[in-house]
Amino acid sequence: MDAIYEVHGLTKRYGRTAALNGVDFAVTPGKLVGLLGPNGSGKTTLMKISAGLLQPTAGSVIIDKVPVGVFTKAVTSYLPDRMALPTEFTADDAVSLYADFFTDFDKVKANALLADLHIGGRDKIDSMSKGTQEKMQLCLTMSRAARLYLLDEPLGGVDPAARDYILSTILHNYSEDAALMLSTHLIGDIEKVLDEVNAEYETYLTFEQLPPNEKWDIKSYEEFAVDCAKKIVEYRVDCEKYGTTMEELLKNFDDKMGALPEDDFQAASD
């Protein structure tokens, strides 16, 4: 099956800093790809280049056999990592905007999804919680009949209940004829979804900056572990609020790290 989304030698530099360095991978229809990495590792940069919002320093992105450009924007549904709509908009304004811009937008589907969230047409975005804003924007993104869905950190900054809704919406509105890439630094949440998807689709994880031999980069995992540690204080408050414990959180992290193949770590360090 031909790839719908191809990344070839993609490099993006900001001065002397390389956000992306020679990234290569391809995704065929029917696949849900988890793009994993700590904050600041270039996930959003890759998403923005793929959505046609940034120019790469080198390399290329091909979507549906066409280099990123006007045509690919018509077949790519992009969810940015922050609210992209004017906050003075109502839900009806947002739906109308998408209907005007995208010919593949299903207005009936969008209104049904928003009704499930108890979002009224006259509800203003600035009156919604962050979690509700994230869910509303996701509903609009998934109401398009796109060939490629790019979801940048859809789980970031929302509570566990909102994450569950977001993941469920993705799974129930994802077409086998399309490809979907989701970026996140929340490994536990996305692995849970990919395990469920694995029963229906040929699914895999792709790491942000895989070495050429496609082995795991142990340094990236060390940096990710440090990033997790820095957030423990923040998570402790959330754990107490949502009925879990730090012990359960850390055990889950240890289990995930312990499940990584030792051969991959050895190859990465050679």
**CATH overall fold name of the largest domain:** Rossmann fold
Based on CA inertia axes, which overall geometry fits?
A: globular
Gyration radius over CA: 19 Å
**Continuous helix count:** 11
Overall CATH architecture of the largest domain: 3-Layer(aba) Sandwich
Distance between the termini: 34 Å
Flag low-confidence runs: 195-222, 260-270
Q: CATH superfamily assignment of the largest domain?
A: P-loop containing nucleotide triphosphate hydrolases
Would you report the number of β strands? 9
Give the helix proportion (percent range). 40-55%
Structural class: alpha/beta
Provide the residue-averaged pLDDT: 75
Can you tag this structure with a few keywords?
about 270 residues, alpha/beta, Rossmann fold, 4-stranded antiparallel sheet, 9 strands
List the helices and strands and how they pair.
Layout: E1 5-14, E2 17-27, E3 32-36, H1 43-50, E4 58-63, E5 66-67, H2 70-75, E6 76-79, H3 91-101, H4 107-116, H5 130-142, E7 148-152, H6 160-172, E8 179-184, H7 187-197, E9 204-207, H8 218-230, H9 232-241, H10 246-258, H11 262-269
Parallel strand pairs: 3-8, 3-9, 6-7, 7-8
Antiparallel strand pairs: 1-2, 1-4, 4-5
Helix pairs in contact: 3-4, 5-6
Short description:
By secondary structure, this protein is an alpha/beta fold. It is built from eleven helices and nine strands.
